[in-house]
Design brief:
By secondary structure, the chain is of the alpha+beta class. It has 24 helices and 23 strands. β3 and β4 form a beta hairpin. The C terminus is likely disordered.
């Protein structure tokens, strides 16, 4: 019966399926994201015992500091809380020797990393303690994907010699398919643990992981590591470890951003609001359809159909709609999840390899549960109300009065709720979109149009000294500057809008900080041509030039914000700053000039103070080269850039070949994705809310057609009819908007840490939400208002009478035929016939009264359609 009923109303079925499918699909998509990023356990054995260890500096307030190699060795030697303890770092590994040089994501690991994670190689062996002895031959372990792509799955790959970062290295193992710890690494090699001749502050840092011993918790492990640090500090007071504390947390917590949980929570709330709006719309559709079928349902009840049977029939209709809509939504959720992962992984942004959007039992069970809840939410109230309708009341009313009015009140409440929830969605979407616009419109302080950048990493074997590094980049800069199509070239450790290192500093002449909390600034080493390349204005003093060689006194340039923070806006030219205030020795540098403020990193750090040093004085093996095209697309210079690098070093790969705009895009991928998703949620919510408004008003106009006809016959003006129809919608808009803006402000607080350049209470956004909802209301009310204005008084009465008598009689006749076949000789037939006659007489009496009130002659013939 439910299937046949839906088949007889295809437009109703399609509309309800589309509405409920949209809400269910978005909800499944978000639960899939939360399940993938927050709930799914790590793909390691006993993952609940895996922990990540880092440091917190009580003096500076930093709470996420990697562990220096010296400290890691001390902790590994003394700790007892972990049954295995390991460390690693990530970086670039360039492979060559048997093919063109190619850059891969690499991992530099200690011998216990794979053991800690519970992983063993698919072929060959893992690293052994002998591989870490100074002077041991370099060895590497490669991923299964690299084995297949670069070496075509060669079964004899173990033992093969290649070149890794310019050194001969032996492949000793191949990991299983899918293992790419931690950030989709392709190759792993041994971390350097030889610190015999390296000072503690100058040693490399490592990320430390461990597997807790059975029965040991995170707090207990942290207490032990703190005690070890205290003992080391007492033994070596010059190490300045007394202010260091350890931070021990689960491995999964380390790789989920601090704001990820709050953002996903806000998104889940948003899609649940969309689902509620969708369910409210479907409920409104069912209300309208139930009112149309009230007489049919009442006659079924009069013929003996049990109330629960009628309720079950309507509920099953909703369940069928939810089943189809949920299936469509599930497919759309999976497609959306795959698209999201492509966006998140298309730029190398440090996403842990195990984070992926995949179907599992949780998503399937949640999808089934949410579809059933959605179906019941949308259908149970209309179904129960329809089941309570008494047959004699429906027939006596002739299709008007309390029955329609009761459903109308429920419909208005649902629409008001829809408007409130839609306002919440629009507020959050507006704030996130405004945040992205603020990021994109920020002034970078540099001319980046027409500039192509690339990243290089020099090998220590081919460029062993700082002088060799400087000489290589100077030759490369001159080679590129002389190439066709290149206007300028410059070398730097950080191009604008990409990333930058940092340093603590202390201006000369200022008293040292009592708590040693020195200010922090971004640090960039750049060639003199850098500032001409990016047209960074010189505000005071001089720029870098040929005088600033490696053997010259150290000099720096500083940004405008640095001057404000360090010197209260006074000229710093000629002053000195210490670039290592926490070190044993002062590293003074003279400020020779002030340049304009440049956004060196992501937009969040647009106002960070920046310190520039000559590249010749602070060379780095990892550096960027930038070229400005004379005209046309800067990407056309990519081959020129690679050719120049190959000419100087054939084993050196070029990577991160991007324009400045592409750097900005890669920096803001998560923010833009968040804004797009909230915009999609809000668009669906607005569409569904507008549809609900339209359906509610169309339903109200249809129910009040006779009333509108009487009003017009009594002389009501068009303006009065418009106020009657639109006034109801505007009252609901006012109530819904007031509730929604308050709730929207509350939800915006969850996102306050991820918004950029906009406050959680943004008058422009909140005002725009009111305007958008008002426009949606006007558009949605246009058609019902126009229909109300076209109602003719006598035609409304005739249509009403036709519906009251002729149509009721036909419905009764059909149901009688149905009843005769199934329930012959039931006494209910007699009651039904009497009730049908009462309907016709009652309708005729009401129309006669109305006609007399309007001055019609009593002898005017009745419509011919009801003479029988």
């Amino acid at each position: 019966q439910a299937l046949r009923s839906l088949a007889r109303s295809p437009w109703y079925a399609v509309t309800a399926i589309a509405m409920l499918g949209a809400g269910l699909g978005l909800t499944m998509y978000m639960f899939g994201a939360i399940n993938s990023f927050l709930l799914r356990p790590l793909p390691f054995a006993h993952a609940d015992r895996l922990a990540h260890v880092e440091l917190a500096d009580l003096a500076t307030g930093q709470d996420s500091i990697e562990v220096p190699t010296h400290d890691y060795l001390e902790l590994a030697r003394a700790q007892r809380s972990f049954e295995s303890f390991a460390a690693f770092s990530v970086g670039t590994l360039n492979l060559s020797g048997d093919d063109r040089p190619e850059r891969f994501e690499g991992g530099f690991v200690t011998d216990a990393v794979f053991e800690t994670l519970g992983e063993t190689p698919l072929a060959g062996r893992e690293f052994e303690p002998a591989d870490y002895v100074p002077g041991a031959p370099p060895v590497v372990v490669i991923s299964h994907a690299l084995w297949q792509s670069r070496y075509a799955g060669d079964p004899g790959i173990v033992g093969r010699t290649i070149r890794a970062n310019g050194k001969p290295a032996t492949i000793v193992g191949v990991m299983r398919a899918g293992f790419e710890f931690p950030f989709r690494q392709d190759v792993w090699t041994t971390a350097s643990l030889d610190v015999a001749n390296v000072q503690r502050k100058e040693a490399t840092t490592l990320e430390v992981i461990g597997r807790l011993a059975p029965g040991v918790g995170l707090a207990q492990a942290r207490e032990e590591l703190d005690a070890i640090y205290k003992a080391v500090s007492e033994a070596d007071p010059e190490a300045s470890l007394d202010r260091i504390r350890t931070v021990v947390k689960s491995l999964n917590a380390e790789y989920i951003g601090r704001n990820t949980a709050s953002v996903l929570t806000a998104m889940m709330i948003a899609v649940l609001l969309v689902l509620v709006i969708a369910c409210a719309n479907v409920a409104n559709l069912m209300i309208a359809r139930t009112v149309e079928r009230t007489r049919e349902l009442a006659i079924h009840g009069a013929l003996g159909a049990a109330r629960m049977r009628l309720v079950l029939r309507l509920v099953l209709e909703g369940a069928l709609i939810a089943l189809v809509g949920g299936g469509i939504g599930f497919v759309c959720a999976m497609i959306g999840g795959e698209a999201t992962m492509r966006v998140l992984t298309e730029n190398e942004n440090g996403l842990p390899y195990w984070l992926s959007y995949a179907i599992d039992a949780r998503i399937v069970l949640f999808s089934i549960a949410i579809a059933l809840v959605g179906a019941l939410s949308a259908t149970i109230v209309p179904a129960l109300r329809a089941g309570r309708i008494a047959a004699h009341a429906a027939m006596r009313e002739g299709g008007h009065g309390a029955t329609g009015a009761g459903f109308g009140r429920a419909s208005r409440v649902l629409v008001t709720g829809q408007l409130a929830l839609c306002a919440v969605l629009l507020v959050v979407a507006g704030l996130t979109v405004r945040s992205i616009l603020a990021m994109q419109t920020i002034d970078p302080g540099a001319e980046t149009e027409g500039v192509l950048t690339a990243r290089l990493a020099l090998f220590e074997e081919s460029h062993p000294t700082d002088a060799d590094v400087v000489a290589f980049f100077e030759r490369l800069e001159h080679e590129l500057a002389a190439s066709p199509g290149v206007e300028r070239a410059a070398v730097t450790t950080s191009v604008p809008l990409s990333f930058a290192g940092g340093t603590y500093y202390h201006p000369d002449g200022k008293p040292p900080s009592d708590d040693e909390r020195y200010p922090f600034g971004l640090f960039v080493a750049a060639a003199p041509s850098y500032f001409e390349m990016f047209e960074v204005p010189l505000l005071l003093g001089r720029a870098f030039d040929s005088r600033d060689r490696a053997d010259a006194p150290p000099v720096v340039l500083v940004s405008e914000r640095f001057v404000e923070d360090a010197f209260e806006g006074r000229s710093p030219v000629g002053r000195r700053i210490d670039l290592d205030p926490n070190g044993k020795e002062r590293r003074w540098a003279e400020i020779v000039g002030v340049v304009g403020q440049v956004v060196q990193t992501e937009p969040d750090d647009a106002s960070a103070p920046v310190i520039y040093a000559p590249f010749a004085q602070r060379p780095q093996r990892f550096a960027s080269i930038a070229v400005r095209a004379r005209s046309g697309d800067p990407h056309a210079l990519a081959d020129t850039l690679r050719a120049a690098v190959t000419k100087l070093d054939r084993d050196l790969p070029v990577y991160f070949v991007r324009t400045a705009d592409e750097w900005v895009a890669s920096q803001t991928i998560p923010d833009r994705l968040m804004a797009k998703l909230f915009a999609i949620f809000a668009a669906f919510g607005l569409l569904l809310a507008a549809t609900g408004i339209y359906a509610m008003l169309a339903f109200a106009v249809a129910q009040r057609t006779r009333e509108i006809g009487v009003r017009r016959a009594l002389g009501a003006l068009d303006a009065g009819i418009v106020r009657m129809v639109m006034g109801q919608g505007m009252r609901q808009l006012a109530v819904g908007l007031a509730i929604g803006l308050v709730l929207g402000f509350g939800l915006a607080q969850v996102l306050r840490n991820v918004l950029f350049g906009v406050e959680t209470f943004d008058p422009l956004t909140f005002g725009a939400v009111g305007v958008v909802l008002a426009l949606a209301m006007l558009i949605a009310t246009f058609a019902p208002t126009r229909r109300a204005l076209r109602v003719e008084p006598m035609q409304a009465l005739r249509n009403n009478l036709r519906r009251s008598a002729m149509e009721q009689t036909m419905v009764l006749w059909n149901d009688l035929n149905y009843g005769v076949r199934l329930w012959i000789a039931r006494p209910a037939f007699v009651a039904s016939a009497i009730a049908a006659l009462a309907i016709g007489l009652s309708a005729i009496r009401r129309e006669i009264g109305v006609r007399l009130a309007l001055g019609c002659a009593t002898t005017e013939p009745y419509p011919t359609e009801i003479r029988p």
